[in-house]
Design brief:
TIM Barrel; about 15% strand; globular
């Protein structure tokens, strides 16, 4: 997700593993979910539950059922209205028994409760929470630890592991050679089919309010330079722009001629003649998949919401191949908010209309535009919470419920009051509510910048 560690995205009443009361005991009433008053906007407060950090992390507590219940109680007290539970982490394994991947059971000596997903769903329902399940979409193995679905399946890895530019010399190689997690090529049919099958399985297996895609993207602008992507791009150019470049294409230099480093990031130095068309191609790949993913959800349970998590920084999000704007917003024709990377046809790759909800990572310490003299006169500024929300509403045309999001652990807020202020501001102006990443940062001081529990900061931000 998200900063995951910027990192970075569910639940019915399944009583597996829950202790029954005596036969003579009166039935327990389900909690009443408070409805908004007439004319009042429902304020959703969703909290992300990352599987790797919470279940298997050093300070994670979601490997113990009693601690899970205690933490959910604290979330309820803080004003939480729903959870986003990660059920397909970056290992490519699943947090439940599946026919498509091994079950993620243990790591570093920490074990997952056998009925983890069912148990969290049941406990969420008891507290009146909404329940969303999320998947790390196009990542299939832990590149640092060298384990996961991709490493278990050599043929799959060889064919579909993302081919990336590894250095300023333009050297191509597999992404795990760089130490990163194993992203796979989103353009590959088998890759997409595997994810779509998992989505259908999740929606069919669990009682959930929504399915959220996380990492439904390319790793960054260095990917994917495989032979498959080249073949698809040649076909795309012919279909989209009526250009036959099969015999003349110099790949990948006609996409990016040379590279440079900026901080720790590898970026184009000199763009090739087809660079901007390449950006359109990649965004069209992701748009096409998002449409299929929505159809997969709705084919099983039409009333289940479909959404995504994306970074709020639209100005550079083209680098990961994602256009989460409205299909009716054209950055190439926008002369108010200029995007010099845009090209004719890019606007057609927008996928906001495919969503039931959009979560954006507004992961910035600056909350209001007026907080900085350099931005005080601006309306759209993609590196502040207010400015990014302005921009998001502008390019999505406010067509879908928006959940602004903050990272309460990895972003260096000056104090808890700033976290509260950010939450309160997002709730005051978004159409959906707020998403908080991640619950582990709230209960484990070792995992946040302030080194204290953060439930009270959340509670202060949520209250009227």
């Amino acid at each position: 997700m998200k900063v995951k560690t910027l990192i970075f995205l569910l639940f019915g009443l399944l009583l597996i593993g829950c202790k029954k009361g005596s036969d003579n005991a009166p039935p327990k009433k389900e909690p009443e979910v408070e409805e908004p008053k007439p004319g009042e906007k429902k304020r959703e407060v969703l909290v992300w539950v990352d599987a790797r950090s919470n279940v298997f992390g050093t300070y994670g507590k979601f490997s113990d059922k009693e601690q899970i219940k205690g933490i959910l109680d604290k979330l309820k007290d803080a004003g939480t209205t729903g959870l986003v539970i990660d059920v397909k982490p970056s290992s490519g394994y699943l947090m439940y028994v599946s026919q498509y991947a091994p079950e993620f059971k243990v790591l570093d000596g920490k074990k997952k409760p056998a009925d983890y997903v069912e148990f969290v769903l049941s406990e969420a329902k008891k507290r009146g929470f909404k329940a969303y399940l999320s998947i790390v979409t196009f990542v299939e193995a832990d590149g640092f630890r060298k384990f996961g679905y991709g490493f278990d399946n050599p043929r799959f890895r060889e064919k579909y592991e993302s081919v990336v530019v590894k250095d300023v010399n333009g050297t191509l190689g597999k992404i795990t050679e760089t130490g990163k997690n194993m992203f796979v090529n989103p353009a590959a049919t088998e890759v997409q089919d595997r994810v779509l099958n998992i989505i259908k399985e999740i929606v069919g297996k669990f009682e959930l309010d929504g399915l959220i895609l996380d990492y439904g993207r390319y790793t960054d602008v260095t990917a994917d330079f495989s032979e498959l992507s080249k073949i698809q791009f040649v076909d795309f150019m012919k279909r989209k722009y009526n250009q036959d470049i099969q015999s003349s294409l110099k790949f990948p230099s006609d996409i990016v001629t040379s590279w440079k480093t900026s901080g720790e990031q590898l970026l184009p130095n000199v763009q090739g003649k087809y660079y901007k068309q390449w950006l359109v191609y990649r965004a069209s790949v992701i748009q096409d998949f998002v449409k299929k993913a929505r159809d997969a959800v709705k084919s099983i349970k039409p009333n289940v919401d479909f959404g995504v998590y994306v970074g709020a920084w639209y100005t550079t999000y083209y680098q990961v191949g994602v256009n989460w704007a409205s299909k009716d917003y054209d950055p190439f024709q926008d002369f108010e908010v200029r995007f010099d990377w845009a090209y004719p046809g890019y606007g057609e790759t927008g996928y906001a209309e495919e969503l039931d909800l959009l979560m954006t990572g507004n992961y910035f310490t600056q909350i209001m535009l007026k907080d900085n003299s350099a931005t005080a006169s601006l309306k759209y500024h993609w590196w502040s919470i207010e400015g990014s929300l302005n921009g998001i509403e502008y390019i999505t045309k406010n067509r879908k419920p928006l959940y602004g999001s903050i990272d309460v652990g990895n972003v260096a807020y000056a104090n808890k009051s700033e976290i509260s202020k950010a939450i309160k501001y997002i709730l005051s102006r978004t159409s959906g509510g707020v998403m908080l990443f991640d619950v582990v940062h709230m209960y484990a001081p070792e995992y946040n910048k302030l080194k204290v529990e953060l439930f009270d900061a959340v509670k202060e931000g949520v209250k009227n």
